[in-house]
Specification:
The structure is a single chain. It contains 2 helices and 20 strands. With 209 residues, the protein is mostly beta strands. The chain has one domain (25-207). It has an 8-stranded antiparallel β-barrel with strand order 3-6-8-11-12-15-16-19. It has a 5-stranded antiparallel β-sheet with strand order 9-10-13-14-17, with no helix packed on it. The longest helix has 10 residues, at 2-11. The chain starts with a helix and ends with a strand.
């Protein structure tokens, strides 16, 4: 009887199985719909850059980003959007030292992969990231697998009801490279995280299908 029940569960479609078991379904999406799409402006809240090996964190004020989203239905989640411009960030510290963050090798690519229909939340990744860090007696590059690869990624989620794109501090591959100076607060090879919320204007509806 147990084997028969197990075979039945394997054969059932995921949506039907979720209904039977009373769980909330979050499925990998095949195609996507974006409305209205086109050019978007994104204003950030505070951005927090952290070296998770040393615990050193840099908090930066708001900045503005520009990007594009594809429009229509039947869209692939790969390359569904991009960030094409980022205003550089000036980040002061309590010690009176300031840092500047500059986006490099734009555009960055937005890829989406799964959709929580009940919550209206999209999960995905922002990729092709590279960021230059300069400050008093401290320079570095933030990237993925090397300081010149331009393959940094962060995981993100977008909420349709608020128009907010949030980076996550897990699931990415960011590291510091080419570190010079910095008094041991950051070191080459240390993992990095970026925590920021971007509010899109106009607000987008990203759904699947």
């Amino acid at each position: 009887m147990r084997k028969r029940y197990a075979r039945l569960l394997v054969a059932l479609p995921a949506a039907v199985l979720a209904a039977i078991l009373g769980t909330t379904t979050v499925l990998a999406a095949v195609t996507w719909t974006v409305r209205p799409g086109g050019p978007v402006s994104m204003k950030s809240g505070l951005l927090v850059l952290t070296d998770t090996a040393t615990g050193a964190a840099l908090t930066c004020p708001s900045t503005v980003l520009s990007g594009m989203l594809k429009s229509g239905s039947g869209l692939s989640g790969t390359g569904i959007g991009s960030i094409t411009a980022v205003r550089r960030l000036f980040c002061p510290t309590p010690q009176g030292i300031s840092f500047t963050l500059r986006a490099r090798d734009l555009p960055w690519h937005l890829n989406v992969s799964s959709y929580h229909a009940t919550a209206g939340v999209v999960a995905g990744r922002l990729g092709h990231l590279q960021i230059g860090v300069t400050g008093t007696a401290c320079t570095a590059v933030i990237d993925g697998t090397s300081g010149t690869a331009s393959d940094g990624t962060v995981t993100v989620r977008y909420t349709n009801s608020t128009g907010r794109l949030q980076t996550r501090t897990t699931g990415g591959n960011l590291h510091f490279y080419h570190v010079r100076g910095c008094a041991g607060l950051i070191n080459t090879g240390d993992p990095a995280t970026i925590r920021v919320t971007l509010t899109m204007s106009p607000r987008q509806a990203i759904t699947s299908p």
